[in-house]
Amino acid sequence: MVCHRQSANCVREGVVEEMTWAKPLYAKGQIDRAGEILSRINPFLNEPIDMDEYFEAVDIVNNWRAVHGYPLQTMKMALKRRAKRICPSAIVAQRLKRLASIRLKLRLSLEAGNHPSLSQMQDIGGCRAVVESVEQVRQVETLFSEASKKNPRRGPQYSKTFDYISRPKLNGYRSVHLVYRFRSDFSEHSCYNGQRIEIQLRSRQQHYWATAVETYSTFSGEALKSNIGPDEWKRFFALVSSMIAISENQPTVPGTPTEMRELVAEVRNLYASLNVFNVLSGWAAVTKFTEERAQDAKDAALYLLVLDPEKFTTTLYPYAKEKAAEATAEYARIEKEQPKLQAVLISVDSVAALRAAYPNYFLDTTSFLELVNKALSPRSGAV
């Protein structure tokens, strides 16, 4: 499939970058049909499948995903400006949702008795800010709220908020999600109107927890974030999330103790019986990291990270902004032809910021383990 593209001058939200952006090629019905095919066909399984039907669906999904690129860029720049205003050391990143993650979300929705709709999925394009504290999360959230109230008929249209800090998920996930719909008066950008973009706001401790869960899921093959996996590991992460919640003066995870002393006692037992330290740190010790075209990294606007869980390798490919279309095409090719690899296309300011924003792709759980060990230490005062 050949994607027609346009050159866009991003002047909204202080962005002035010439990049190429995908344009929508398919109707809503085709997009939702492709999502339905993706949700029921899994190339990982040794089952007979219609490869022509599957690859056609993947092409449609990839175009729909790529169409979120321009709206995502504008929202990321707004997030960066506001997050840095509150927390100069904020980590800000953006990504287009992985094909495997799209498939899993659609499948779980279908299994829950819902009618999943790819065209209505709100987090295909997502950007994230990691700040120091919950207080700073709330301050950034307020800046977005004030901006929407100030210009209700212009710019991104606020859709909804999911407050997983005040109401943590049962698995322990905690963050604030803001969902916006792209809106532009410029004719060249009107084809993106209505595209949903999700903003995630996390404290640093919440980020350590979330990326540790992602790291475990990568090599265990269990999607803990979707409540799939061994009960003991699910319990461990839920308990640690509640420990972090108490330290941040926030509500604990439903079904876990509300007192730090009880939490520490249960976490200590699981930490030992599950051999948590060796399991989570061991993958990083044997994983080889390779940076391709290192000379291009200083001018990179995008990074393609490719993790091979079987070979324990992570490879980084930097792309300049004028090669955004090439990066997107390579991202789609890898997911289509090598589905066992975990690839993600990310926009951050530097390789250092990349490691901080996505430590799970480097199998780095150091900060999470330090956090847990500190809480379990007798010096913490919790025991």
Q: Look at the structure and give the CATH class.
A: Alpha Beta
Write the H/E string, N to C: EEHHHEHEHEEEHHHHEEEHEHH
The class by helix and strand makeup works out as alpha+beta
Shape, principal axes of CA atoms: globular
Strand order of the largest sheet: 5-6-7-4-3-11-9-10-8
CATH superfamily: Beta Polymerase, domain 2
Identify the quaternary structure here: single chain
- Portion in beta strands: 15-25%
Q: Compute the number of strand runs.
A: 11
At CATH level 3, the topology is Beta Polymerase, domain 2
CATH architecture: 2-Layer Sandwich
- Biggest sheet record: 9 strands, mixed
Report how far apart the termini are. 61 Å
Which parts are unreliable, with pLDDT below 50 for 5 consecutive residues or more? Answer: 1-17
Estimated radius of gyration: 21 Å
Number of alpha- plus pi-helical segments: 12
Describe this structure in words.
The protein is α+β, with helices and mostly antiparallel strands. It has one domain (9-380): Beta Polymerase, domain 2, CATH 3.30.460. Helix content is 44%, strand content 18%. The protein contains twelve helices and eleven strands. A nine-stranded mixed β-sheet has the order 5-6-7-4-3-11-9-10-8. Strands 1-2 form a two-stranded antiparallel sheet. Helix 1 (28-40) crosses helix 2 (51-66), helix 6 (204-220) runs antiparallel to helix 7 and helix 7 (231-247) packs antiparallel against helix 8. 41% of the residues are buried.
